[in-house]
Amino acid sequence: MTAVAAGDAPAAPARPAGAVGRTSWGTARTVLRLHRTALLGWATVVLALSGWLAWLTEIAVDEEVAAREACERAGQDLCDMTVGWVGYSESLGWIGLLISYSFLAVAAFAGSALIGRELENGTARLAWAQGITPARWLTAKLAVPALALTAGATVLVLVYRWAWGAHRTLTYTGWAGDDAYLSRGPAEVAYILCALALGVLTALVLRRALPALAVSVAASGLLAFAVARFRDSFRPAVTRTSTAAPVDFPDNVWELDSGALIHGRRSPTVDHWTCDGTAAETRRCLDDLGVTGYYATYHPESHYWPIQFVETGVVLAVAALVTAAAFLLLRRRTATATAA
Description:
Blueprint: H1 19-34, H2 36-73, H3 79-82, H4 85-100, H5 103-121, H6 123-129, H7 134-166, H8 186-206, H9 209-229, E1 238-242, E2 253-262, E3 265-267, H10 279-289, E4 291-300, H11 304-339
Antiparallel strand pairs: 1-4, 2-3, 2-4
Helix pairs in contact: 1-7, 2-4, 2-7, 4-7, 5-8, 5-9, 7-8, 8-9, 8-11
């Protein structure tokens, strides 16, 4: 298949000022028509996952609750750990993972079907030759999917927040887990918009659908991985110390680090259980090691929203930079073609 460069666009003919609005709507309508299958697929995913969450939370959970109550009435141990994990909590976790990493599918779509295929087939150049400027074409290509994706992702985040908080005693994953962190906050929407922008920029650079698909997915995944590595530093963590015994983590916290204080310095490789024996032998062993106390560092659940907002801002800033780079690249290439 013959490749068509993004810079081969002819200059768009001049249009009356009153036609600009009609042209903008016509371009958006064209995008809706070309990608209606993808938009319908996204709507189906949103409805299916929302329905699954509603069924899981309102209907399927009744059996789990009854089993938990029967376990507690029978006086059995660890009822909170043996009931609800396989059915309710595992299903909720899988849905959370699907929502959290849906931005990878968005990157694949943006890099291949949305931009890459049109550049490869030459339909983008055809649109520019019919009076649609490259900038207006790219604006419509970004705006229409962005609106649909934002609306759908917002619905998924709100429904998942409701489902995740409805029966906390039946879930075994914490608020900072892979399935619950992104899928309950605005950072999920930010990652989806950033993946859309990355896919568009990658397609403009490569101008091939399949390579753009692969690179877009890889770039979006690497961005998410890099941001996650610094997530715990988006808010100062809480550190508790003790001189008598190891510090117990409170409930519902994101555990970061724990260990012993050796001459006032943290050592995560040494704890109370490093020394074994009688109380006197343990104390003598700890003294020989120089242990003067213990510490535990964590994020309480109240840090969820501050961390979410910082991460959302970081990812949206990257999305804005990538979008600006896409417009600059397209303008440079089309200007070069026009000058030639």
